[in-house]
Structure formats: structure tokens, C-alpha cells
Amino acid sequence: MLKTHMRTHMGENPYACDTCGYRCSRLSGLQAHARTHTGEKPYACDVCEYRCSRPAHLQRHARTHTGEKPYACDVCEYSSSQLGNLQTHARTHTGEKPYACDICGSAYTTSSDLKKHFLTHTGQKPYACDACEYRTCSRCSLRSHMRTHTGEKPYACDVCEYRCSQPASLKRHARTHTREKPYACDICGSACTTSSDLKRHARTHTGQKPYTCDICSFRFVSSSALSKHKRTQSHRRKAVYNQS
């Protein structure tokens, strides 16, 4: 046993796979690796039909039945059934983002987030809606989109009866109770509840008017201002005149 353990320090890997170039320090490790080629799964769950090639995998799986979460965060109350999940969670406290995009440099806390981001560069959208032509690069985005068809609103406000389909919508709604205005203008310091409100406010400084009336060519800072204009008598008269 000591001799086997010493290989972890010496970097010695005497056991080699006959199929690929894999090498390891333990015979048991080589035997477990061989199952990636044979597909053998000798370890079976007593509760369900799950089978796997390694005892460690079976041990992790068993926690889905027992609810055991032995890996606990030192900073908050988060706990997990898997060590990898805890390591990923820890980055929410440290701010560490070890996965960086080679194209634009954007950094992420998980490799899966980086893979999803990379699809924004390739234009690939592998997740398709069964009900319409919507496609997306993210499984999470597809789940959110499906709620536009099902009408599901799983996110509920703790203060009032408001419900919504997106967590971001609930977060925005909560500010109607807290009066929080986290988005501040760099020019005048005015604070807004949402990023879209801040964008509209910024146009009062830039003079940008991106919304144009298709009848009289008047331009407006916001879509709401354009809608208000279309309800005016002068707009309606011009619309009727153009149709005659």
C-alpha cells in the first residue's frame, strides 16, 4: 500500500491501457478505466435502475435518494451532494472565473457557461422549440421560452400576488416594493429601477430618438411616447388623410 501511495508523489504510472494511451499508478484505476472501452457497469443502485462503472459514482448517485449533502460551504448555508458543485458554488464568494473565451475574453465560473457563451460566436442554436420556430443556444433559455406557450408562472412574489415566468422579472418586480434603484446615470446621477429605464433616460442627454412614427415621421425617445403620440387627434387626422 505504501509503495502504491508513493507513486502519487513520484508521478510513476506503471499501469497502461492496451486500447489507448491512458496510464495510472493503481491496478484498480486501470481496471476502472478499461470499462470506458467495454461499457461494463457492474455497480447497481438498490433503489432504481441506475448502473455505473465506478463505486464512487454509485456513492454519489445514492445521495439523490437519501438527500444527503455532505459538502457544506464555509461562508453561507449552501450544501451539496457533490464536491464539484461546492467548488463551483465557492466561486460566487471568491468571484473567481477560471474559464475564459479565446475570442472575446469573457470569463465564466463554469465550463458549461463558457460552452454556452461560445455558441454566441458560432451562431449555433441547437435547442429548438416544438411549438414554434424559436431556436436558442441555451437549454435554460429554451425552458424559459416554453413558458410563453404553457403560461406557467413558477416565480411568486413574497409580498403580493404577483407571479411571473422569469426570475429576472421577479427581481425587477421586487423593486416596486423595496424602491431600490440600482441603475444610475453617469452624467446626472439620476437612478432608475431597471436597465431599460436607464437607457431611455440616457437619451435625454444624447438626444437620440430611435422610435419613428410611420405616418408623420416624428421621432421619439421611447416606444411609450410614440404610442401616446399615435393616440393624439393630429396623428389620427393625418392617418385618415393619407388613406384617402
TrEMBL record:
The keyword Repeat applies. It is found in: Nucleus. Residues 15-42, 43-70, 71-98, 99-126, 127-154, 155-182, 183-210, 211-238 form the C2H2-type domain. It holds the Pfam family zf-C2H2. InterPro entries: Znf_C2H2_sf, Znf_C2H2_type. Its main location: nucleus. Keywords: Metal-binding, Nucleus, Repeat, Transcription, Transcription regulation, Zinc, Zinc-finger. The keyword Phosphoprotein does not apply. This is Zinc finger protein 239-like. It comes from Priapulus caudatus (Priapulid worm). The gene is LOC106817891.
